[in-house]
Amino acid sequence: RRVHGVDVIVYPSVTDKSKNRGFAFVEFESHRAAAMARRKLIPGRIQLWGHQIAVDWAEPEVQVDEDVMNKVRILYVRNLMLCTSEEALEKLFGEHKPGCVERVKKIRDYAFVHFTTRDDAEIAKARLDNSYVEGSCIEVQFAKPVDKENYLRQTRSSTQQSVMAAALAAAAGSYTYP
User: Fold this and answer.
1) pTM greater than 0.90
2) Residues 6+ apart with CB under 8 A from 111
């Protein structure tokens, strides 16, 4: 939702779609505007519904080359109900052309739907984005391919940080699981 030149993105709870997840993303027109807002929202100054808010920078969305994105045949579907099955999604996304869905991988409240052709994926996206599935309004967009080198670098870095945190916690006499 766009308010005064700012995009506010709030996702519903996985278990209760009438509630939010307790966080939001706020996208500003510029880094400068975001930095100014962040400074004004320092801890202790603002409360929402009786709770202090925490404000931090989000990781920027990965930008994928347009030529690469134009070849993607996989749809990313978010805001699904926990009870929605892969079989139900395969049937729904393949209604316009039986056999066009290669496979579906659902993880909690989102899924990846693989199509045989880009055209089939485009038709399904146009037909189903912002539609209701089992009582939940779903978002459908093209999945962004993973840059394998960057993914491996981030995974190694994250694993190293987890191991370091566990080592520090163990040295301090407490234990955590990475």
Assistant:
1) no
2) 76, 77, 80, 84, 86, 89, 104, 105
